[in-house]
Amino acid sequence: MTATDALTGTDALGQRQRAHLERLQQRYADILATLGFDAVLIYSGHASHHYGDDQEASFAAYGHFMHWTGAANHQHDWLLIQPGRAPCWYYHAPADFWHLPTPAPNGVLAEAMALEPLRDVTTPRLPLPDGSRLAVIGNVGDATLPAGAVRNPPALITALDELRVRKDDYERECLHLANRHALAGHEAARLAFTEGASELDIQLAYLAASRQRELQVPYQNIVGIDRHAGTLHYQHYDPEPPTAPRSLLVDAGHRYRGYCADITRTWASRGADPLFSRLIQGVTDYQQRLIAALKPGIDYVAMHDEMHRELAELLVETKMVTSSAEAAVANGLTRAFCPHGLGHGLGLQVHDVGGRQRNAKGDALPAPIRDPALRFTRTLDAGMVVTIEPGLYIIPMLLAPFREGAARHTVDWNAVDRLESHGGIRIEDNVIITAAGHDNLTQGAPLPER
């Protein structure tokens, strides 16, 4: 039995997966009937070659294909959904001695679907009656579009995006297991940092402990020591450790059956400024207060505004700001210390679909003008999964206008200058909204030892 099986039990997870597939079958039938389609053909996608090269870029399958299959790395596959019939999965399995062919799907998927191997990169021959109205969705070119099919109809894409916004019990369990693996990686990263490791070595420790290759992570891990922690999407891994490290920020995840964990932790070294350690605890505390308030009916934009009020209170409490908390929010100072949104939807994509639409019709819910980076603007409902990830960063280019403006006397610039070498803080958990409130998927015991 694997560690994952020990956590959940394959029988229990299998039962949830069967119910998940039954739900998709019914909901797809309803959506297709409403929009006048007889069937939909979903393409998994394929990797592109680097320009002038025969090597491929990294790849992740189309989210609506993964919604059924969980197969994040399958290229050149097709899935035919036709109401009243079992889904048909055409999986690419060429006769090949250069690469190991994709094995046939098994388990619950093999029970619930018709399976057809494809020996070539081609569009499958479909068992559809003449005159069927077919939609094809995914990254499909003219050469592979079946005659008469409608490619990526917007109304269908929007409705399927909305279907993914609320997760069922199977999806919840996959997200929970992805979090368990990611937490094991974060603990390994923390230990490596305490032993003086470089960013590259910390990344390698994370991958080993979370049991994944770098190509399998749901997004490029962020591993930032010191000032690098103040670059929100820091993208490099320095192979040499600093002589006197002060801080580490790790934003890293895991993918389980297609579903993503997205966790961020920040740690201070023994040589860090005591104020930085105090700020880490402060951000952690108010992050947990924000999570405690989550339940159906809560406006996520209002929660984002609450994050700024909490941040302002922390800045005032630690005397980094001497104005009132209300003034620090009103004059934009908190947005200089934290320029990103409270979080985003999470699921088969790290920034999951449907976060800025009101309903299945796609009625837009744009981000507030003052916060264009906010990726989720909905009212929370049971089944939605969101990240809660407040931050506090010392980003000189954002704080520079306040050194010369009217608020220049309300900031302890000596403290800011001391903390600049520490980069920043972000604490991120993944939370599912339930009928009774919420469940923090990131909290809990680590994976058992193998």
From TrEMBL:
It catalyses: Xaa-L-Pro dipeptide + H2O = an L-alpha-amino acid + L-proline. Residues 18-160 form the Xaa-Pro dipeptidase N-terminal domain. Binds 2 manganese ions per subunit. It is an enzyme of class 3 (hydrolase). Its cofactor is Mn(2+). Mn(2+) 1 binds at D262, H344, E389, E428. The keyword Protease applies. It holds the Pfam family Peptidase_M24. PROSITE patterns: PROLINE_PEPTIDASE. The keyword Metal-binding applies. Mn(2+) 2 binds at D251, D262, E428. InterPro entries: Creatin/AminoP/Spt16_N (IPR029149), Creatinase/aminopeptidase-like (IPR036005), PepQ_N (IPR048819), Pept_M24 (IPR000994), Peptidase_M24B_aminopep-P_CS (IPR001131), X-Pro_dipept-like (IPR052433), X_Pro_dipept (IPR022846). Residues 174-435 form the Peptidase M24 domain. Its EC number is 3.4.13.9. Keywords: Dipeptidase, Hydrolase, Manganese, Metal-binding, Metalloprotease, Protease. Splits dipeptides with a prolyl residue in the C-terminal position. HAMAP family: X_Pro_dipeptid. Belongs to the peptidase M24B family. Bacterial-type prolidase subfamily. This is Xaa-Pro dipeptidase.
